[in-house]
Design a protein that fits this description.
about 20% strand; two-stranded antiparallel sheet; Rossmann fold; 2 domains; about 375 residues; alpha/beta; nine-stranded mixed beta sheet; single chain; Arc Repressor Mutant, subunit A
Length: about 375
């Protein structure tokens, strides 16, 4: 498997992924399929900087630094030489990879479960980093290394300024983005929390920079902010202060924050009351709607009145019920509007599952 990731804090995120695969602990709350050593080929930050990140992460996750470091290997390179060693030949269209055999042999000897390349755009010496043909060959070379070494590869890359969460925001040639779609098994973008998202989640604007979410590459498929899993970047003090540098280093680590359930603290009796009112409607032959432009017929108004939750929280509850088919949508003829309009109907099977012993069928309530 290959993956590409970009965004602010990608180094801290890569360290968390590496430590998960070394220890078997799901530090980012994703299943760890294989455990073993990790190899890092770094161009942007040196070995010392990576070790500082690893030390901070070990402090944060309560891991033994020495034990972890025994499973992390760095690929060194002579000064001025690109270890992946992609460069154009005389004809300018063929890319050479003189270090291929050495890299594969090194990986086969260590038998790592993860090979990190940081970053992609520094892993070559191509005269033209926007050449579709050359970039396609470089991406294929990474795929060959993965296949021959039987290792997962995590490729870190940069986005263009003003990115919107789409794979086409990746820097480089158009072919790079097309190749990532075809060759790389997964492409994940780290997108920083927007001002609007911070406001929706009631997070101070000054703290929004700490929050990033995973975008799949197609933002129109992404869940709403209150259903996202957010990566929160925190500062960890290394405790390496000196007389001249009393505060020591503070290094960024990543943690996962799952938004709390909108149902937390709501008694089932309130849920039962909402279901009862959804069945009967607000009166005068009208019924509640899932659509917020329905005015007082919007079911969110009912949810807020019964539970005391604000509009955003009520919207999250309603969205969850619709997603899980606890309530269904159909139409009825509105006496007031004199036309067919949408309404919500309680799915009695699901309602019984939600309420358990508190459930009372409509027939039993008559």
């Amino acid at each position: 498997m290959l993956a590409a990731i970009d965004g602010g804090g990608k180094g801290a995120t890569a360290v968390a992924i590496a430590l998960s695969m070394i220890t078997g602990r799901a530090l980012l709350r994703e299943k760890v399929w294989r455990t073993g050593p990790v190899v890092i080929l770094t161009y942007e930050d040196d070995k010392t900087e990576w070790q500082r990140r690893i030390a901070a992460a070990c402090l944060h996750y309560d891991l033994d630094y020495q034990s972890v470091c025994r499973s992390i290997y760095f690929i060194s390179r002579p000064r001025g030489r690109v270890a992946l060693a992609a460069h154009s030949a005389i004809n300018g269209r063929t890319v050479m990879f003189p270090d291929h055999d050495a890299i594969v042999a090194h990986l086969q000897r260590i038998k790592p479960v993860l090979f990190i390349i940081d970053p992609f755009n520094h892993a070559h010496a191509l005269e033209d980093g926007n050449s579709n043909a050359m970039i396609a060959q470089l991406a294929a070379e990474i795929s060959r290394i993965a296949a021959e070494s039987m290792v997962a590869v995590l490729v870190l890359h940069h986005l263009r300024k003003g990115s919107t969460g789409h794979i086409d925001d990746m820097m480089g040639a158009v072919m790079l983005r097309a190749t990532f779609r075809a060759t790389f098994r997964a492409t994940r973008l780290l997108m920083r929390m927007t001002k609007e998202e911070a406001e929706n989640l009631e997070i101070p604007i000054a703290e929004a920079w700490r929050y990033n979410r995973i975008a799949s590459g197609k933002e129109n498929y992404s869940p709403p902010p209150d259903l996202n899993t957010w990566y929160v970047f925190k500062s960890v003090k290394l405790g390496n202060g000196t007389e001249l540098y009393p505060d020591g280093d503070s290094v960024q680590v990543v943690d996962v924050e799952v938004p709390p359930s909108p149902f937390t603290g709501i008694p089932k009796s309130h849920v039962a009351e909402i279901f009862d009112q959804l069945r009967t409607g607000p009166g005068e032959g009208e019924f509640y709607s899932a659509r917020s432009n329905a005015g007082k017929r919007w079911a969110g108004v009912l949810i807020s009145e019964v539970t005391g939750r604000n509009e955003r929280e009520a919207r999250g509850i309603l969205r969850d019920w619709i997603k899980n088919r606890v309530v269904l949508e159909n139409e009825y003829r509105s006496p007031k509007a004199h036309k067919q309009v949408s309404r919500l109907v309680v799915n009695e099977v699901k309602a019984a599952e939600v309420l358990g012993s508190l459930y009372q069928s409509p027939e039993a309530g008559e």
